[in-house]
Write a structure and sequence with these properties.
The protein is built from nine helices and 17 strands. It is α/β, with parallel strands linked by helices and 344 residues long. Strand 14, helix 7 and strand 15 form a beta-alpha-beta unit. It binds NADP nicotinamide-adenine-dinucleotide phosphate and zinc ion (2 copies).
Length: 344
Amino acid sequence: MTTARAYAAQDASSPLAPWTFSRREPGDKDIELSVRWCGICHSDLHQARNEWGASTFPMVPGHEIVGTVTRVGKKVKKFKVGSTAAVGCVVDSCRKCVNCKRGLEQHCLTRVSFTYNCVEQDGKTVTQGGYSDKLVVDEGYAFTVGGKHPLERIAPLLCAGITTYSPLKRLGTRKGTKVGVLGLGGLGHMAVKIAAAMGAEVTVFSGSPAKKADAKRLGAHEFVLSKESDKAAGRMDLIIDTVSADHDLNQALGWLRTEGTLVLVGAPPKPQPVSAFSLIGGRKRLEGSGVGGMKETQEMLDFCLKKGALADVEVVGYPQVNQAYERLLKGDVRYRFVLDNTTL
Ligand code: NAP
Ligand code: ZN
Ligand code: ZN
C-alpha cells in the first residue's frame, strides 16, 4: 500500500479537511498519477453533503483529474512515466457485460466503480477521488492528453465536458441544430462551447441576468432569462438541462419544438414534477444522461483540444475549498473552480 494525502469529508455536515489514507500499489495494468489539478463539480458538493443519500464517509471527492504519471505497471501500453494522464468519473467496471462491451462502462450491469463514494471491483475497497496527491488506476480508465494546453482548463472536461458532449453527440447535434442550455454553470458553460463547436445555434436559458455577456462570449447565439422565456416557446431541437436544484421541467419542455428532447444531466436532490401534458402536446421526449464511456471520453477530449473548447476556470488552493463550495452554491464562479494540488 502507498500513503495518499487528501482533503476529505468525514461526515455530511463537517467542512472538508486534510486526511491521509492508503491506496493500492500499482498492478501490472495500473498507472500511478501525481494529481496536479482537480475540478470541483457540483456532484462533489451533493455527495460530500449527502444530498443524494447513500454517501459513505470519509469521502475524498473529485472526478475531474489531470496529472503526471509517476509509476507504470509492466503491462501498461498507453502511458510512460512523465506522461500527462486524465481520469474522470469512472475508475473501473466489469469489462464483460453488454454495456461495458458497448463502451457504456458508466452503465456497467455488474458493478461500476465510480471514482469516489463507491467501491472497487472487489466489492469492498472504497474508491477515493482526486482531492488527493496521488491516484492509482487501470490504464483503460485513464485518458491521454496531447499537445501543450493549460492543464487546469482541461481537468473540468473529465466530467463537465463528457457529460454534455455525450448527449449532444448522441442526439445528432450539427450545423444549425437549435440547442438550448438550461443553467450556465460548470456543465452549462461546457455545453455551450461544445454545442457551438459542433455548429449548433445555442440559446442559453438562465436565471442570472449578469451572465448574458458571458453567454455570448462562450459561443451562445441567444440568451433568455428563464422567467421571460415565452418568446422561446416551441423552438429548440434539444435542451441540455444542467440545473442542480428545484426548477420547472414543464417550462423547459415548453421551449422544445414538436418531437424535441429535453435531456436531464443536472441532478437535483428532490424529484421534479412533470405533467403528462407537457410531453403529450408535441410528442416530446424527456431523457437522462450520465457522464460517458471510456472511448467516448477520449474522443471528447481530443475534440475539445482540437476545437479549443477548454473550461473557463478559477484556480483555488485546498485551504479555500470550503469557501469555494459556498460560492458554488451561490453561482459565484466563472465557470469552474479547479483545485491546485500543489497546495495539499
Ligand atoms: P453549477 O456549476 O453549480 O451549475 C448549476 C447551474 O444551475 C447554476 O450555475 C445556475 O445557472 C443554475 N441553477 C442553480 N440553482 C438553480 C435554481 N434553484 N433554479 C434554477 N437554476 C439554478 O453545477 P454543475 O457542476 O454544472 O452541475 C450541475 C448539476 O449537474 C449538478 O446537479 C450535478 O450534480 C449534475 N451533474 C450530473 C452529471 C451527470 O452525469 N448527469 C455529471 C456532472 C454533474 P444560472 O445562473 O444560469 O441560472
Ligand atoms: Zn461531476
Ligand atoms: Zn460491465
